[in-house]
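#dry-run=false #mode=assembly
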Amino acid sequence: MIRKRLRLPIVWVLALTMLFIAGCGAAKKEQLMNASADSSKKKDELILAIGYEPEDGLDPTIGWGRYGSPLFQSTILKRDKDLKIVNDLATGYEVSPDGLTWTVKLRNDVKFSDGHPLTAEDVVYTYETAAKSGSVLDVTVMKSVEALDEHTVRFTLNHPQSTFVSILVSTGIVPKHAHGTDYSKKPIGSGPFQLVQWDVGQQMIVEANEEYYGPKSAFKKLTFLFLKEDAAYAAAKAGEVDMAFVLPNVAKQQIPGMHLVIANSVDNRGILFPYVKAGGKTKEGVPIGNDVTADIAIRKAINIAIDRKKLVDGIFDGFGTPAYSVADGMPWYNPETVVADGDWAQAKQILSEAGWEDVNGDGIREKGSLKAQFTLIYQADDSSRQSLAIAVSDMIRPLGINVKVEGKSWADIAKMMHANAVLFGWGSYDPLEMYNLYSSKTVGLGWYNTGFYSNPVVDDYMEKALQATTEEEALGYWKKAQWDGKTGFSAKGDAPWAWLVNRQHLYLVRDGLEIGQPKIQPHGHGWPITDNIVEWFWKE
Amino acid sequence: MNRRQKTLITTVCAALLLIGVIASALLIGDEWIATNFEIKNEPPSLAHPFGTDWLGRDMLARTVKGLSVSIGVGVIAATASAVIALILGMLAATMGKAVDNAISWLIDLLLGVPHLVALILISFTLGGGLKGVVVGIALTHWPSLARVIRAEVMQLRSAEYVLISRKLGKSRWWIASRHILPHMIPQLLVGFVLLFPHAILHEASISFLGLGLSPHQPAIGIILSESMRYLTSGMWWLAFFPGISLLMIVRAFDILGENLRKLTDPHSAHQ
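#status=ok
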């Protein structure tokens, strides 16, 4: 009996709760609807669908912002729109002649969004935390960091590394007094904006940081909706957002009241070839090397035969540029490395001269008992990588090289990547990435140099580039490592990669919203575009 | 034309359709689905009745290839499922009360969980791919057939010739293989054919969700899920024709199974 009597109230409570929850849901929806971008009313607000949700949170000490601006935090140095390094928090920095000591002077007028001043202690704390975190942000080169006085910081390195400057560019400074375990969800920083609300899986609302020392943004409030590209496009079409990131297949369709902004990038895609012959194994037992791609003739022929322009037009509807290196257009890029591609006659000649001939008439060349075929793996979820892989395979089959295409998860790729060609994407503002991809010191290290490429001349140039104390000197060596007239890691030299395309990043922007010409974008469609967000404004 | 003739004709038509799809898939080489940027994104035309995709591949060839992959997966998975059903059904009916209870409990359990959920879990645990899908379908689709077989065996067990056999001292195994199994074959065949459309549809849906076959195996679920990205730009033919074809194949198997049942079932065999 008691049970029965109890049952009714429970049902009622449940029913009421349901009603309440449903009511809240409805209210939220209404809010979202009201928030739809009516530009005539809210000139100081923006609704943006330009990026995926940052999965690891907003903590720079574990990698937030390393591909663009951290938005909530500010960095010691930054790159201007010509990618030159300029001061942000710093007023200047000095490198000792041996390249081991970096002394940075900080501005004295910087406050975090909670009003606390930013001092050298916070910088020290940030870098020490980052070093301890062991995250994607690699500061292992740093031996120690210390505060000389309130506004001077000294970094001591284990060995000279000119690219340390890029770490100063990409690491946002966090406050020592307010950096707790939930910091990545509730960041406090000295950047142009501060986080107000983050509805996981839906949206993030930010407001202008009143304490920001730089130029004030024209906007008081920004709402970032976390949509995928096709949903972002649909939202743009419905007039719900002021800006949306879109994929090439819809970019050519006109949406009234919006225009397309095209940002060039080094967000590249390329094929990595195993550079050594098969036989070896890593400590984990992953096989290393591939007899076919170890032959330079195969790698060169593919590099020369691929028609990169055709790939750009065919797969990205023209929204991209042919890629010839990992760093096209970066200050350390060597333009001499461009090869004349789509050249069939020469590609065939290279193969024939190296002894690759189609003896048995099956359309695939052989050399001795070796057949000119290998597997190209790509990340299965990424449709553009899949398209690229398939198109490249079809493109070079008439050459007499059979490329089998397989889509895998990253976990599976890790077990195959030393012995098979892999379609990778890179592209960074840091030349250290180039070092990591081509140095013999990084063979088999994570995703770097998975093909086990090594060339002592290239190594020598790259070490010299790291040891250089001025940027100009370093740039010279970086360029020589790519091609010095005789050798190098570009397609003209050893050709351990066949770079294919740089994707252009596409954004639909409401007419009247001026976002300037974005600088060359790094890897990652979305967040990097916010780099110059303080300069955006509505044109009258 | 009487009803039996009609049934026979539809059966033959359905079978021909299926054989046609499999045969043409075997005849179509890789060069039929080579990329060709000059003809990409073309709507259906005489040269390409199903249109072309974003890489300029002929959708008809892709659809046929995809269907044959799906049929292949369906055959393997449905066979495995039918074998499991047969073994468990027979065990339940002949091995005594405890085994019967255990197997019945298992059947109820699996019937209680939605197929797709169990399938996703199994496939995900096995790391997706062909193996995951086949094992997943095989392990989730047997219960209804097992129940039918169990009931049938129960009935047969009390048939007079079985009782006489037992009295004559024949072993359980002898009775099961000589008397009961031959009776099961029509049931099993029909059950297998009826499992088939389920298997194909579930293969397609799990591949569609990205947990099944990998994208370079152009199964129909993959083709459909890829087309989703292009629907916003108005390329309806990427989803429409493969979808319709999948439905037709599934329906053909359904008709085949139903008709086989009609033809073999003594109640309707002579109509």
